[in-house]
From TrEMBL:
CDD domains: HMA. It holds the Pfam family HMA. It comes from Cohnella silvisoli. This is Heavy metal-associated domain-containing protein. It comes from the Bacteria. Residues 2-66 form the HMA domain.
Length: 67
């Protein structure tokens, strides 16, 4: 299992948590949102999901992934 912490802008409430964690789950990753810190800690199987896929799933929900 790979782990990464992604910086994300635009997260403010529980709906944001559910949207992002649900998007990650749908692509086979597990995420923990911390909107106070503006981060998402992700665990994923690199053989099935790439970090670029994770960032894209978050962006597709309307959030900005910061490098």
């Amino acid at each position: 299992m790979q782990e990464a912490t992604v910086n994300v802008q635009g997260m403010f409430c529980r709906s944001c948590i559910h949207a992002i964690e649900g998007a990650l789950e749908s692509i086979g990753a597990e995420g923990r949102v911390n909107f106070e810190q503006g981060t998402v800690h992700v665990q994923y199987n690199e053989a099935k999901v790439q970090l670029a896929d994770i960032k894209e799933a978050i962006q597709n929900k309307g959030y900005n992934v910061v490098a």
